Protein 1
Amino acid sequence: MCKSGWLELGGSGMVHPNVLKAGGIDPKKYSGFAFGWGIERTIAMKTELPDIRLLFQNDLRFLEQF
């Protein structure tokens, strides 16, 4: 539960032109938008994790808590 403002649960962003090119799509003609709900955001919310980047540091001492 978010008590102090906005809580981001879904991520989004623009698809890199090289990704479109690799998929056979002309990036000069088309662009892409990606979005989704990551499990790490739910973990951060349920455990009150102060910074989601902690999940991506590959520190086993920290990650083994989950």
Protein 2
Amino acid sequence: MARFKFLLAFFAMLICAGGVAGAYFYWKKFAQPEIIVTRHIQGKDGASLGRPDLGKRHFDAAMGLLKEGELVSARDRLLYLMKYFPESATYGDARRIVGELNMDLLVSKIPLPGKAEHTVARGEALVTIARRNDTTIDYIMRANGKASEFIFPNEVITVYPLNFRVEINLKEKRVTVLDGDILFKEYSILDTHLPADLKAPVSTTVSEKVAWYDNQPINFTDLNYMNCSKWIRTGKIGLFIRQLESGGSGGSESRPYGVMLENGDVEELFTILRIGSKVDLTK
């Protein structure tokens, strides 16, 4: 009987020893490394330093490329950051810089997929060249440094097919231009005044682009074209993209309908949007 009790006690000790060994293994394998990592990301006073910003090194690399004049590579590095590290503190700056880079690349002589050179034939005009190349007169003028409509036979001009679409987000107060599903550039909405019966979501297209000077519509051949007001009308009544009227965002019902942006932002949209460009209004 005593021998049986001794065996039971011996087995109990083995079980306890196994439990202790298992606990020690778990401690060394899992708990201790986690504590070490936790201490590493905390300050000496125990205050949390937060998770490391994995996107910042890509942002810093992109800024280095910018300093070297590598605009395309810098833009692509920032797009990578935006895709894989949206939680990064640099995400907002990355979006803004991508927009500026995209616009600079578009109107510069730097080669891009789709950008081409067109040799002017005798009898051609800007309007026909723009139509045949799916671009705009404003783009041709801006990309080629022109202040007037005059072109000459055998002149070589830069053209680019403009196939952007626009998302107007009322809640976030921004207008986003997309190239397919990729961000091209964003603009801040300063004021909004839409008809009461115009409710998001709405899908439409650009139906007209109008330039105004001294309360009269003008076209690109007018001497005042470079300094006039511009607005973009869509296929939905009351849905315009226009410059903010002087006097700001008052509450008068007499003020014009539309989504109001900075003058320079409307100028850019006037340059890169064609008749028929898609426009989506979201909440």
